[in-house]
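lol ok so funny story. i was supposed to be doing the assay writeup but got distracted and ended up predicting the structure for this chain instead. priorities right. anyway since i did it might as well share w the group, maybe its usefull for someone
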Amino acid sequence: MRFVLVLLILSISVWGYSLTLSPYTDDAEFHSRYSEMDRNDSDKYFAMRQELLSPKYKLQDYAVTGVFLALLAGALTRFKSIRSPSSIFGFVAVALVAPILTAASFVFDLIQAQSRGEFPHWADTLNIPFAAVPVIFVVSLIWSLAHLVMLAGVRRSHAPLHLAISRQGNPWLLFVSFVTAAMAVMLIAEGAYFYVVPDLAWVYLYLSIAAVRRVDGSAQSHDRQRSETPTN
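and the output, tada:
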C-alpha cells in the first residue's frame, strides 16, 4: 500500500506541475508561424507543433495514468477477493459496459486531440472519425455477446476471479485476457489512460466467464464422481 500512496502523491504532483506549463515552449512564435501558414499545409503544421510542443500534455497524461495505475495496484493486492458477477444480469451488464467504454474512450481521445490542437483548423472536423463510433460499439458488442454464449449451460456462481488463472481454465479466455492485459500495459507506458479503462473491463469479463466455467466444470465433475461411486 505504501507504493500506491507514493504513486498517488507523485502523480498528483506531476499533474499540478503540468498545469503551470504552457502548451508550447514559445506560444507567441507558435501562433505567429501558424497565422502565416498556407491553408491545407498540414505536414508543415504537424512539424511545427512537434517542434514547439512543451511537455505539458505528456505530463498530464502520465499523471492521470499514474493515478489509474495506483488504483489498479491497490485492487490487485486484493485480487483474491474480486469475484465475477453473481447473476446473468451482472454478466450482461459487464458485456454492455465494456463496448460502451471502448466507444467512449475513442470519443474522448478525439475530443482531447481537438482541444489540444493536434490538427490544424482547416482539418479541425470530427465528423469523419465520429462516424466510426457506432461501428466500434456494434463490433465490440457483438464480440462481448459472443463470449457470453460461453456461459450457456453453466450454473453461474459468484466465483473468485483468480480461479480463472489455472491450467484448468479455458485456453481461449486466458489467451484473450493475456493479450488484453498486455495491451493495457503498453497503453500505460504510453500514458493513454483513457484506453486502459475499457481494457480492464474486457479483462474482467473474460476472467469472470473463465472463473464460473471452471467452478461449474469442477462441480459437474464432482457430481459425476459421486453418482458413479457405488453405495453399500
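Confidence is low (pLDDT under 50) at residues 219-223. The first helix runs from residue 2 to 18.
back to the writeup now i swear
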